């Protein structure tokens, strides 16, 4: 029997012990970081229904027709390779219930580096943690190497750049 594959979220765990239970609806991610990791894995594994389900009700894509969003997510997930995720920093929920995760997503499209660093906001909707919004920058647009970033020194003037 071949060994179980590693989880695409770069946790070091096997997929079945990590994000699989979230993708299958057997459990909710216990915190914002786990949700963010499971969403990265969902892109890597083309689990687009999970990506839809874990969008916060206030995310702009929730106001669009579900089938349109799913079609776009399928196209994005299929066109890219997702070799590595690195969590750079995290902040627990604030007074509004919003938690923040800063991460570096390594992504490639037909051999071209499409990697980015994103400051993502997550909020619990009463059922589980959900992706609310994000500000993303290409590593080349950063003042320091991605590995040196924290939430305190992420250039938040990047308004308008959003991730999924």
Kindly list the characteristics that best describe this protein.
164 residues; alpha+beta; Nuclear Transport Factor 2, Chain: A; 5-stranded antiparallel sheet; 4 helices; 23% helix; globular
Describe the protein in words.
Helices cover 23% and strands 26% of the residues. Strands 1, 2, 3, 4 and 5 form a 5-stranded antiparallel β-sheet that branches. The longest helix is centred in the N-terminal third of the chain and has 14 residues, at 32-45. The protein contains 4 helices and 5 strands, in the order ααααβββββ. The chain has a single domain, classed as Nuclear Transport Factor 2, Chain: A (Roll), CATH 3.10.450.50. By secondary structure, the chain is of the alpha+beta class. The model is unreliable at 158-164 (pLDDT under 50). Strand 2 and strand 3 form a beta hairpin. It has helices spanning 20-23, 32-45, 48-53, 66-79; strands at residues 81-91, 98-109, 112-113, 116-124, 129-137. Helix 2 packs across helix 4.
Task: Enumerate the spans where pLDDT stays under 50 for 5 or more consecutive residues.
Answer: 158-164
The CATH topology is given as Nuclear Transport Factor 2, Chain: A
**How much β-strand is present in the residues?**
25-35%
What CATH first level would be assigned?
Alpha Beta
Q: What sequence of helices (H) and strands (E) makes up the elements?
A: HHHHEEEEE
Oligomer kind: single chain
The 3D shape can be described as: globular
* Rg calc: 15 Å
CATH architecture: Roll
Task: Describe what is shown at a glance.
This is YchJ-like middle NTF2-like domain-containing protein. Helices cover 23% and strands 26% of the residues. By secondary structure, the chain is of the alpha+beta class.
